[in-house]
Amino acid sequence: MAEEQKVERNQRKVLSATVVSSKMDKTIVVKVTRSAAHPLYRKVVKFTSKCYVHDDKNEAQVGDVVEIMETRPLSKLKRWRLVRIIRHAETD
To answer: Which value, to the nearest 10 degrees, does the dihedral of the CA atoms of residues 76, 79, 85, 91 take?
Structure first.
């Protein structure tokens, strides 16, 4: 009478970011911007983080706004994967 226990995994973080570099094969570098209040002065300050993202089809280009999702470690630096491209970069 082995009962199967359904193990639910936690929700993964999903962020939107801007592509900074797409020169590597199947990897893009994105800039994640977030705002937070300064602990003492309560002024809203912008913070940016750089993330390496797995782009399996080499779809994203510099300037695109993309949605990324947290995943298992794929390499030394890659911990995120591309979900979709929200907006393509405007080309002149």
So the answer is: -40
pLDDT in tens, 20-36: 999 999 999 999 999 99
Question: Around 71, how many Cα atoms within 13 Å sit in the side-chain half-sphere?
Answer: 17
Please identify which residue in the block is written with the tokens 């993964």.
Answer: 12
Class of the CATH domain delimited by 14-87: mainly beta
Residue 82 · residue 59 · CB < 8 Å: yes
Q: Which residues pair with residue 3 across a beta bridge?
A: none
Could you tell me if 27 and 50 are in contact, meaning their C-beta atoms sit under 8 angstroms apart? no
pLDDT at 60: 95
Are the CB atoms for 69 and 56 separated by under 8 Å? no
8 Å CB contact between 12 and 71: yes
User: What value does the CA radius of gyration of the chain take, rounded to a whole number of Å?
Assistant: 17
